[in-house]
């Protein structure tokens, strides 16, 4: 099954652009793979340390390189709801490895922070940089050179992108990602948002707000809205890192455990010792990356992936750009309505047909490259399934439904919710930015209004409480880029701007910071680059300047005489308050070398 010519053309230009980087990367991967089972190069002292706690039988097997050894990289902690289920996974994986005739060891742990806990707090300024730190931490675990294949246990915002960068850096090793699944449905997301707005307006108290939040985030698993965490799971499946159907099965269920054991056995089956060697760096190519972007558009996924996908691709020597993402958005229809792009949550999405139905429809429309390698084998057609628990306790897969079980949540390719994906690039005299419009009403795609300038989100929130945010305006929140303060999500602005919009004001946001996978109904031009601290034009905007945000034509302009605008002095901000506290001082070197947003805001690929 061939892809649409427009998809093929964008893929071809990515291939051409990537050649100077991709081929040297593949050469390194193949050189590392050619060395064979790497425990063979370890001295007796090295190896003795590496299997000191193994059983006698395992030591004997590993000493002779007769069986594959499976490394486990885990992001377990019991504070994150999404990662708490991983506590029991190593035991399941070791059991599966023994059944498959192999050995499994936890190679290392990586940090996993929760953006939900740190929103609006100092710790959020560590969040984006934790992605690259996670890649480094996984690299430390794998540097012991003990493993033939790796399983990665991760779910949430920066964890999966960081683990993907690690998997591709160690691209000579097969890599299977094992998710934990979403929590069961709690208080509906729109009701949670309603209570948040009431609280912001002083019409509800803290007790009512905490009750609503606790009923929404109530147990093990990912948050159920379609933010970055669940976008991650979609990406891992559509890019072929997951077993088919693995993404959205709830934690603590027999099917979840069966999928985990199956993934571990598959990771052992695709090592260099078998007949299906599938090194991650060879498996993921330009087509896989394009498939990921297509999935992001088709589901109305997280804006954070306009950063993460660039960094993930670059780890494999692939140069993806915002223009590629924007052009793919013009081709790919929106097939899913999941909050904040609709009222459903990810459990409703799965019940409507889930990933199997989505991939089936995208293949039918020529939106995906089917001829890709995956951890399950060749081609995405194998992912057009509905996972079930078989009578013997193993995973059983049935064909995906031909018709959506809920057309309000998941659409057929012939009747999409909208003809485009809704993520667009904006360019103009302010620089470049990204906007997500899949949840923004068409009449709000163009906003022309005077600027109200702030240097952090707290300033804006104070102005709101003081009744100063009257009339139409575009909020300019600057000095929020990676070099300024680590590029935190400005999620606290969603409620305030939403209230003003509901009151009838025309409002929008322009920022060199991030919003999040939960950004919704308010037009938001985010990730502005160059950022203010890098002499970006956003630093020359003044209160009252008219700004035109045009998501229809993909432009963002400050309507000021060009000569005057260019001659203006750059604004300054006191960022000393962002340098210390909650670990921020430890990340000063990251802020100093961080690359721009349109290169992934990375310290690894600046």
Beta-strand percent range: 5-15%
Radius of gyration: 24 Å
Task: Output the number of helix runs.
Answer: 22
Helicity level: 25-40%
Biggest sheet: strand arrangement: 9-10-14-13-12-11-15-16
Low-confidence stretches: none
Defining traits:
Glucose Oxidase, domain 1; 4-stranded parallel β-sheet; 8-stranded mixed β-sheet; 3 domains; 22 helices; 606 residues
Give the gist of this structure:
It holds the Pfam family ILV_EDD_C. With 606 residues, the protein is α/β, with parallel strands linked by helices.
Architecture overview:
Residues 68-381 form the Dihydroxy-acid/6-phosphogluconate dehydratase N-terminal domain. Its cofactor is [4Fe-4S] cluster. This is Phosphogluconate dehydratase. Belongs to the IlvD/Edd family. By secondary structure, this protein is of the alpha/beta class. The protein has 3 domains: 7-36 and 67-184 and 219-399, no CATH class; 191-215, no CATH class; 423-599, IlvD/EDD C-terminal domain-like (Glucose Oxidase, domain 1). The protein has helices at residues 5-34, 44-50, 56-63, 89-99, 115-118, 127-142, 159-169, 189-200, 206-216, 228-238, 254-269, 280-283, 286-299, 305-315, 322-329, 346-352, 354-364, 457-465, 482-485, 492-502, 562-567, 588-593; strands at residues 69-74, 103-109, 149-153, 175-178, 373-374, 377-378, 385-389, 395-399, 423-428, 431-436, 446-454, 473-477, 507-511, 524-529, 546-550, 555-558. An 8-stranded mixed β-sheet has the order 9-10-14-13-12-11-15-16. Strands 2-1-3-4 form a 4-stranded parallel β-sheet, with helices on both faces. A hairpin with a 5-residue loop joins strand 7 (385-389) and strand 8 (395-399). Helix 6 (127-142) runs parallel beside helix 7 (159-169) and helix 8 (189-200) packs across helix 20 (492-502). The longest helix has 30 residues, at 5-34.
């Amino acid at each position: 099954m061939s892809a649409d010519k427009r998809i093929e053309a964008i893929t071809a230009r990515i291939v051409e652009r990537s050649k100077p980087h991709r081929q040297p990367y593949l050469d390194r991967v193949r050189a590392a793979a050619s060395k064979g089972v790497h425990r063979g190069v370890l001295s007796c002292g090295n190896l003795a340390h590496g299997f000191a706690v193994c059983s006698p039988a395992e030591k004997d097997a590993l000493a002779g390189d007769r069986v594959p050894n499976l490394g486990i990289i885990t992001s377990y902690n019991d504070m994150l709801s999404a990662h708490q289920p991983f506590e029991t996974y190593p035991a399941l994986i070791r059991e599966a490895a023994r059944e498959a005739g192999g050995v499994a060891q936890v190679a290392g742990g990586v940090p996993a922070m929760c953006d939900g806990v740190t929103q609006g707090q100092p710790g959020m300024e560590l969040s984006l940089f934790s992605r690259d730190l996670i890649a480094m931490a996984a690299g430390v675990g794998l540097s012991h050179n003990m493993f033939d294949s790796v399983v990665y246990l991760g779910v949430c915002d920066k964890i999966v992108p960081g683990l993907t960068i690690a998997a591709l850096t160690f691209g000579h090793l097969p890599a299977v990602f094992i998710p934990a699944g979403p929590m069961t449905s709690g208080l509906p997301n729109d009701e949670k948002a309603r209570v948040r707005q009431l609280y912001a307006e002083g019409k509800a108290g803290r007790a009512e707000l905490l009750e609503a939040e606790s009923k929404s985030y109530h147990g093990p698993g990912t948050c159920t809205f379609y933010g970055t965490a669940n976008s991650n799971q979609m990406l891992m499946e559509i890019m072929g890192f997951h077993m088919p159907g693995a993404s959205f099965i709830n934690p603590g269920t027999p099917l979840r455990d069966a999928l985990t054991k199956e993934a571990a056995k598959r990771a052992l089956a695709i090592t260099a010792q078998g007949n299906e060697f599938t090194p991650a760096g060879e498996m993921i190519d330009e087509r896989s990356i394009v498939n990921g972007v297509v999935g992001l558009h088709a589901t109305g996924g997280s804006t954070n992936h306009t950063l993460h996908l660039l960094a993930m691709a670059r780890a494999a020597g692939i140069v993806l750009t915002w223009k590629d993402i924007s052009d793919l958005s013009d081709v790919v229809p929106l097939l899913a309505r999941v909050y904040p792009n609709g009222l459903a949550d990810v459990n409703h999405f799965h019940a409507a047909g889930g990933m199997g139905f989505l991939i089936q429809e995208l293949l039918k429309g020529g939106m995906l490259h089917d001829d890709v390698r995956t951890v399950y084998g060749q081609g995405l057609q194998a992912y057009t399934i509905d996972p079930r628990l078989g009578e013997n306790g193993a995973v059983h897969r049935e064909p995906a439904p031909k018709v959506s079980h809920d057309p309000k949540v998941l659409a057929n390719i012939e009747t999409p919710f909208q003809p485009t994906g809704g993520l667009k690039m904006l360019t103009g005299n302010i620089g470049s930015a990204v906007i997500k419009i899949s949840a923004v009403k068409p009449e709000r795609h163009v906003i022309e209004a005077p600027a109200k300038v702030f240097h952090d989100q707290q300033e804006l929130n104070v102005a709101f409480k003081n009744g100063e945010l009257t009339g139409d305006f575009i909020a300019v929140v600057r000095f929020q880029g990676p070099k300024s303060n680590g590029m935190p999500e400005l999620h606290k602005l969603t409620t305030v701007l939403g209230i003003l919009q509901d009151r009838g004001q025309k409002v929008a946001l322009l920022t060199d910071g991030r919003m999040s996978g939960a950004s919704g109904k308010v037009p938001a031009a985010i990730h502005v680059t160059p950022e203010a601290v890098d002499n970006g034009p956003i630093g020359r905007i003044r209160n009252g300047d008219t700004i035109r945000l045009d998501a229809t034509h993909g432009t963002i302009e400050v309507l000021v005489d060009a000569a005057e605008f260019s001659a203006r002095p750059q604004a300054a901000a006191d960022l000393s308050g962002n340098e210390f506290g909650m670990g921020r001082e430890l990340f000063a070197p990251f802020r100093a070398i961080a690359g721009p947003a349109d290169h992934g805001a990375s310290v690894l690929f600046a």
